[in-house]
Task: inverse folding
């Protein structure tokens, strides 16, 4: 879950300046001041196709680099939620079929329940095994719901259970919670984190910045029913989600296969536009306060998706939602990204903007986080450094004349310091910038120098192989560097020593 900074001690002028000149994001921190406004495109409310991307000299992904699918089926989550938007209240029925992908028997089953971090946020009504017998001896402490097993769950075996619960959304500007403009449901259901043999369940403590959760791949079947339109506005509600819906009145049904999670957002204010990238539907949901930024947000997301489809590997889903967020963060989920309203509010009218830059960053997370998983708390560089450097790859491919601007605005302006392999706990609470400078910005510097040492062909061959071998899995720094050694004979010792403290 993303973190928000405290702005209450700032003056209004300080806040406006900060919003204008930086990206205030737990997922990402942005660049220097943006350029002055230029002409903006005409807003279209119908489906729109993105402009053709500029050809890049970088090596392209090929069908032979397709990801290696696991032999076992993924775990399955079936969720049926009824939302009262005005009361910020949900009832949920959830069925889980959990498959043990670990190479060792599991002594218990752990579910993470992030809504239980909030007082009154989660009320468990019932929990039972798939045969209907109640689960006995379980404990719910903070976000951890631990279920004892009569017999260890063997590798490759599965078990089923059902849960009934209620959610009361907290009032907060965040990916989970509600504001006057929207309700956001990221990390809203109990789920099983990865299990690491020899270590146990991959559970990390929350922190003031960065993401602390890790996810296995799973298949999702989700039904959302809205009990009534918003009484506050009288307008019908619009649902943005990680997949395309089948809509039946006030009921929305979704299927999402091979994904880290399923997120959604609801608002009576959303203005909806869509574009098509090959066979992928990109849908943008924005507030009606800055029409000049709405289409650029859609097209920027679509262009980034098209670029990374070619540079990395085919995007694995048939849709991507980009949602304007009523919080000062960018945030990624599988099939859905949030972009802060600040990026729209201060959009200058061209690609020298946080709206374009962070859209590329969040789309890149569909590969570096979505396809290739990692421990976001202890090794956040594995997704954040790669997603930050992917911004440059996007500009190289689509706006090659702006690559110098990217380096200056995104990296050098901040004079970044710190170790790339810093965990999210390494810095003073509420001080996001040193963490961002080390993990995101110096991480991008490291990847840039690595590419220079290896050469383009070897560098992109490495990225393709990394994607192929670790898509649908959890990657670590150890496997990253072990695979890297197979793709280059260059001496990387001095480079690694300059950026990493634990290598």
Result:
């Amino acid at each position: 879950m993303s973190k928000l900074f405290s702005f209450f001690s700032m003056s209004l002028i300080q806040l406006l300046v900060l919003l204008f000149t930086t990206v205030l994001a737990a997922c990402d921190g942005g660049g220097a001041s943006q350029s002055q406004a230029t002409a903006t495109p005409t807003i279209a409310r119908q489906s729109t196709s993105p402009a053709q991307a500029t050809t890049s000299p970088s090596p392209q992904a090929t069908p032979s680099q397709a990801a290696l699918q696991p032999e076992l089926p993924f775990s399955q989550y079936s969720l049926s939620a009824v939302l009262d938007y005005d009361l910020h209240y949900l009832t949920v029925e959830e069925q889980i079929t959990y498959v043990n992908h670990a190479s060792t028997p599991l002594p218990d089953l752990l579910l993470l329940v992030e809504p239980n971090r909030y007082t009154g946020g989660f009320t468990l009504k019932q929990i039972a095994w798939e045969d209907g017998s109640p689960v006995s001896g379980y404990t719910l402490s903070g976000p951890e719901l631990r279920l004892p097993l009569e017999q260890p769950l063997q590798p490759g075996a599965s078990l089923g259970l059902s849960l009934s619960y209620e959610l009361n959304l907290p009032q907060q500007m965040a990916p989970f919670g509600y504001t006057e403009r929207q309700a956001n449901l990221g990390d809203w259901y109990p789920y099983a984190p990865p299990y690491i043999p020899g270590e146990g369940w991959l559970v990390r403590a929350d922190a003031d910045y960065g993401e602390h959760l890790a996810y296995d791949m799973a298949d999702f079947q989700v039904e959302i029913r809205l009990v009534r339109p918003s009484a506050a506005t009288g307008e019908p509600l619009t649902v943005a989600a990680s997949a395309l819906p089948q809509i039946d009145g006030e009921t929305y049904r979704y299927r999402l296969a091979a994904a880290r999670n399923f997120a959604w957002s609801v608002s009576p204010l959303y203005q909806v536009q869509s574009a098509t990238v090959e066979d992928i539907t990109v849908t943008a949901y924005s507030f009606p306060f800055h029409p000049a930024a709405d289409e650029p947000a859609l097209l920027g997301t679509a262009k980034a998706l098209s670029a990374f489809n070619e540079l990395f590997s085919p995007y694995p889903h048939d849709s991507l939602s980009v949602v304007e967020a009523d919080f000062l963060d960018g945030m990624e989920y599988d099939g859905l990204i949030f972009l802060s309203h600040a990026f729209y509010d201060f959009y200058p009218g061209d690609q020298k903007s946080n709206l374009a830059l962070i859209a590329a960053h969040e789309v890149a997370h569909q590969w570096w986080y979505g396809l290739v998983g990692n421990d976001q708390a202890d090794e956040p560089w594995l997704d954040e450094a790669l997603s930050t450097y992917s911004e440059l790859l996007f500009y190289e491919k689509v706006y090659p004349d702006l690559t110098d601007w990217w380096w200056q605005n995104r990296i050098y302006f901040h004079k970044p310091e710190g170790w790339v392999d810093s965990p999210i706990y390494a810095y003073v609470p509420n001080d996001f910038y040193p963490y961002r400078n080390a993990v995101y910005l110096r991480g991008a510097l490291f990847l840039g120098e690595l590419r220079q040492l290896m050469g383009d062909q070897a560098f992109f061959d490495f990225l393709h192989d990394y994607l192929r071998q670790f898509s649908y899995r959890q990657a670590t720094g150890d496997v990253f560097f072990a695979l890297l050694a197979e793709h280059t004979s260059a001496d990387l010792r001095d480079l690694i020593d300059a950026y990493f403290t634990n290598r």
